[in-house]
Amino acid sequence: MSNVAELAHAMKTSLDYLIDAKRCEIAELKRLAQTSGLVDGIGGLVHALQRERGLSNLYLASGGSRSLEALMAQHRLTDQLVQLSAQTFEGLDVEAHPAAHGARLFARVALAAQGLSVLDALRQRVLACAENTVRTSAAYARLIDALLAVVFEAADSAADPAISRLLVALFNFSQGKELAGQERATGSALFAAGQAQAEAQQRLMRLIDSQERCFLVFAEFSGESLRARWRDLQTVEGVATLERLRRVLLSTPPTQPLDVEASQSWFDACTQRLDAMRGIEVELTAELQARCRERLRAANDDLRGLQTRLARGEASLGADAFEFFADAVGGSAPPVQASAGAVGPQLERSVHELVHAQAQQLQAMSAELEAVRASLQERKLIERAKGVLMAHRQLSEEDAHSTLRRLAMDQGKRLVEVAEALLAMAPMLPTEPR
Amino acid sequence: MSNVAELAHAMKTSLDYLIDAKRCEIAELKRLAQTSGLVDGIGGLVHALQRERGLSNLYLASGGSRSLEALMAQHRLTDQLVQLSAQTFEGLDVEAHPAAHGARLFARVALAAQGLSVLDALRQRVLACAENTVRTSAAYARLIDALLAVVFEAADSAADPAISRLLVALFNFSQGKELAGQERATGSALFAAGQAQAEAQQRLMRLIDSQERCFLVFAEFSGESLRARWRDLQTVEGVATLERLRRVLLSTPPTQPLDVEASQSWFDACTQRLDAMRGIEVELTAELQARCRERLRAANDDLRGLQTRLARGEASLGADAFEFFADAVGGSAPPVQASAGAVGPQLERSVHELVHAQAQQLQAMSAELEAVRASLQERKLIERAKGVLMAHRQLSEEDAHSTLRRLAMDQGKRLVEVAEALLAMAPMLPTEPR
After folding, report:
1. What range does the domain containing A423 cover?
2. What parts of the sequence cross the membrane (chains A, B) (predicted)?
3. What is the DSSP letter of B195?
4. Is the residue at A87 inside a domain?
């Protein structure tokens, strides 16, 4: 036996490294389980904030004469969920989160935490009727957007295709639900103000349209049972009321009166729909968590199987060792010395096969992941185009967003198409000095 | 102060989370530094294995009459590098490697370790003249491929654009160098056999072509100084000899005699070129390591800056806190109560701005990364197409590769084009039962 063969015996074997690979996979699944808990908490908090926004709009649009009690009660309810989410945020630890994705995740959490820390200041201005409904809606939308960005990051970083699919379905569903929440707030303000108004009507139309796109992506990536529940939701009684009120809101000519009393029915119809959506969201999150547990159990079983093989000494130079080259030399393994410790049960796959199978499986997973994540591409492009505008034109984020939206409306294009066009010419834009 | 505001004071602030994000970034940079060490060791080992392959071919093609001493000496030299690399492999720890990428990295290392563990068996067969040059070359190529796959994984997982660029340049350079090594082995065997042979000639042409593509990608992603060194390398004296011998090898009609004595000049000319390439590889790796250190230093400076702010109490609700909503509500920050502890130096950016800047920077980095990684896409597509063939047609990896290559040659297409076409129809292929 030569020097290198002796070395080979002293070294960690390929089986040891397979075990390391499995440990990494388990670390990733634990991280995903932790992320699922985070996403669950955010869903509940966002739901409360959406309701708080709707009630704030009812209150403001009525000049402080309606919904004060409901709003105050909602503040208390939201506070409890803020506390819960804050705990989940604090439970995230740097060690458990892969370096680069962790950096993006914590940067998102930083923004969300900043929003939550000034929620009270916003509420005080609302209660003092020192803000209008448009600015208040925008402020809540911004906070919710920061929270959903955490969910987006989670979806974008998941490395297990099945779990990633569910996270993509969840993110899109939550995004659609948020647009439905903005629809509720906008409609509430319109009815409570008692007068149709062109800008708000256009906004409503856009909100209804964009919801549909989100729910299509959700349906593409969620399982059949949730898709069915979502279909059922379109036919319940309350939806008819909602559709009728939508028609009223959109078809009343600008400056013509709207029935102020309908504001409560609108709010209730929308709320019923949003609550039902929240039910689906909760179920989707539960499925996500179940899937994490199931994958974790399977990975732990795999790990034990590998460790058993290691304990049996299968890792040493076995009869199958030369198989590593057999593929390359285009034949079956030659009769190399049949060394001791080489014989595992005939029915099990050899370590050689295992190493190959695992490499292939990881490759297949990474291909599937790319496909799932591609569905997040639209949002990334829009975010990136906003970033370009902010850097080159010294715009605020909201101004950048409005600019893109205006360009899209003027050209009759989708937001993402305008974003793509802008990014394509980005290298030619001059940078204004900061 | 309401309940939520009190909560906000008890919670981790956005500054705390910014610090967490920075810590993740630092963890990522440390991981990259560790990976650079790994990549360095692999480069040296691959270089030794390439030389060992060339000498093995000289030895085998001469029927065991040439190069035995040089080959034995090379075995001892390679062994030292195997030992060094093994130590670096063992120094990789599961904790330091992000979960999903870690799983792929260790799966690659497992395959490489398996190859190294059977190197001795291969050598014994070579020394006994029990293998021919084609099979031996293929076996060494397979081992080297497994080692370079570790470098590929490192390049594909780096989350810092500048470092990622260098890793992509390095991987492509190493890949090109390996093709140059295969060229040396193939040409050595041809000269030593003393007769031109059509199949080997086609193989040589393919190897020369594919090298060029690799070096183009290297030049695209490396810095100017290394690009210049690479250009200079094309004009040194030895290259003229190499080109002359290439011409002899390629233009001698099949079955016509080749000058056996030229085998040593060919080996020497190729070796001179490969050694010069190794010099560039070493420099590229040094640049990579320097860049890791530099980025790590900068990130640590950032971290200290953030910690100083935290110690100064800047994280509490400051005058800029309402800025979170200011963008959304489309105006400057309203005069919210100017709370204590809000005043940081006027010249520094506010925490609010920092949170935004960091989020934007991470986004820009992730866009740049996508662009760099896209250059690794070809290899991924080919690997994936091989995987499909292996699964559907029960082929070995090498047979899958040959099939793709044959398809490409028959259709006059590039390997990656055939791979893409195959992947496009993959969903329609029937799966044979295992």
Report:
1. 377-428
2. none
3. B
4. yes
**How near does any CA of chain A get to the CA of B399, in Å?**
8
Query: Quick check: A298 pLDDT over 90?
Result: yes
The dihedral of CA B313, B318, B323, B324: what is its sign? positive
CATH number for the domain that contains residue B406: 1.10.10.10
B23, B138, B358 member nearest A328 (Cβ):
B138
Quote the minimal CA–CA distance from A291 to chain B in Å: 17
Does some domain include residue B286? yes
Burial bucket for residue B13 (CB in 10 Å: 0-12, 13-18, 19+): buried
Q: Hey, which of A289-293, B132-136, B363-367, B385-389 has the most confident mean pLDDT? A: A289-293
Name residue, tokens 């709003």.
A71
Q: Is residue A327 part of a domain?
A: no
Residue B148 has pLDDT above 90, yes or no: yes
Task: Based on the fold, state whether residues B37 and B139 are members of the same structural domain.
Answer: yes
What the block records as the tokens of A284 is 């989707």
pLDDT grade, residue B278 (50/70/90)? very high
Report the residue from A78, A120, A396 with minimal CB separation from B327.
Answer: A396
Structural domain includes residue B260:
yes
A100 and chain B: CB distance < 8 Å anywhere? yes
pLDDT class for A233, splitting at 50, 70, 90? confident
CB neighbour class for B244 (10 Å; exposed up to 12, middle 13-18, buried from 19)? middle
> What's residue B321's pLDDT?
55
Average pLDDT, chain B: 84
pLDDT digits (tens, 9 = 90+) for A321-333: 566 766 555 544 4
Identify whether residues A201 and A292 lie together within a single domain.
yes
Residue A344, SS3 per DSSP? coil
Q: Which of A123, A325, A395 to mutate to test the interface with B (most CBs of B within 10 A)?
A: A325
- Region A49-63: mean pLDDT is 92
Mutation for testing the B interface, residue in A114, A137, A394 having most B CBs under 10 Å: A114
Mapping DSSP to helix (H, G, I), strand (E, B) and coil, where does residue B97 land?
coil
B37-82 pLDDT, tens digit each: 899 999 999 999 999 999 999 899 888 888 899 999 999 999 999 9
Q: Which of B259, B278, B297 is the last residue of a domain?
A: B297
Among the candidates A241, A267, A298, a domain finishes at A298
* Exposed / middle / buried, residue A237 (Cβ in 10 Å: 0-12, 13-18, 19+): exposed
Q: Is the pLDDT of residue B343 over 60?
A: no
Segment among A204-213, B144-153, B345-354 with least mean pLDDT: B345-354
Inter-residue contact A287 to A297 (CB < 8 Å): no
The CA distance from B287 to the nearest CA of chain A, in Å, is 22
- Based on the domain organization, do B267 and B409 belong to the same domain? no
User: Cβ–Cβ of A106/B21 closer than 8 Å?
Assistant: yes
Q: Are B293 and B381 members of one domain?
A: no
Q: How many domains does chain A have?
A: 2
Question: Rounded to an integer, what is the distance from CA A354 to the centroid of its chain?
Answer: 34
Query: Hey, is the C-beta of A141 within 8 angstroms of any chain B C-beta?
Result: yes
Cβ–Cβ gap A113/B398 under 8 Å: no
Q: How close B398 comes to chain A (CA, Å)?
A: 6
B420 or B74: which leads in pLDDT: B74
Of B92, B120, B398, the CB nearest to A330: B398
Residue contact A100–B103, C-beta within 8 A: no
Q: Does A310 touch chain B (CB under 8 A)?
A: no
On whether both A91 and A229 belong to a single domain, the answer is yes
Would an 8 Å CB–CB cutoff place A148 in contact with chain B? no
A338 at the B interface (CB within 8 A)? no
> What's the pLDDT tens digit per position in B291-328?
999 999 999 999 999 999 888 876 554 545 566 766 55
**Buried-state track A133-167, b at ≥16 Cβ within 10 A, e below 16:** bbbbbbbbbbbbbbbbbbbbbbbbbbbbbbbbbbb
Task: Specify whether A269 is located in the same domain as A401.
Answer: no
